Amino acid sequence: MSKSKAGGAIAASERTSDSSTATKVGSGSGKQTPPGGTKKGPPSALVEWGKTIAFVVVFYFVFTALVAEAFFIPSGSMEPTLHEGNKLTADRILVAKGLVYKMLDIDRGDIVVFRAVDSKEEPFWRKLLIFRQDKPDMLVKRVVGLPGDHVSIEGRRLHINGKPVSDPEVFQRLEYTPYGLLAGSGVTLPEDRYLVLGDNTDNSRDGRMFGLLPAENIVGIALFRFWPPLRVGPIRYPTP
User: Fold this and answer.
1) Beta carbons of 140 and 78 less than 8 angstroms apart
2) Which one of the listed residues 97, 141, 152, 204 is annotated catalytic?
């Protein structure tokens, strides 16, 4: 073979080798950036935190509006059934609201949370404070009178339509002082009105003072106590 032919073969071989090498390097992982475009990185941690916070806020408002909400007991008007205290020691109860509340019937003896009869509408911005503890216009009392009942107190015992109340059993142990609305012969409840009294019968600002409770003021029915740990469970008047 002549030197010229050998040199030509070597050059052609080098060109083929260079082309193969370029093809391998260019192929890389098989992914190419589109012309004029940039690769999108994963969402930042800040965006993910924002989504999580938004979900929690929406879930809280939906849950507390349609299912249930926690309340703490700020006063002693329901002693000895519910105990007052500071934000660490007071009883906390779960209250059925919204759709769950609408599926329940209010019965005599139920404990309800309601907006005070003389309360004013809260500013909208305060309703957005989801972790606030104070709700001064929310009260908790026991239902003693239903629409259509004639309620009176005789011998410190609750009477409905002229007969002493024995069901539920708690009314056999509660003794009331007849004053205010229940002074004299008592009161007959019209439609969509309830009478609520505190279990701490001589130290309670209740229906005897502020009158009958409109049905639309009732926020929900107390389900059970979840705080403090030693008193977790159903809400019952303590036995002797």
Assistant:
1) yes
2) 141
Q: Is 77 a catalytic residue?
A: yes
The segment with the largest mean pLDDT, out of 3-12, 15-24, 229-238, is: 229-238
In whole angstroms, give the CA distance from residue 182 to residue 238: 25
In the block, tokens 């609305």 appear at 181
Global pTM value = 0.71
Q: From the candidates 77, 97, 152, 204, give the one annotated as an active-site residue.
A: 77
**And the tokens for 188?**
């007959």
What domains can be seen in the chain, in order of their start residue? 46-231 (2.10.109.10)
Q: Give per-residue pLDDT as tens, 72-88.
A: 787 899 999 999 887 78
Which residues, 6 or more positions from 8, have their beta carbon under 8 angstroms from its beta carbon?
Answer: none
Q: Active site includes 141?
A: yes
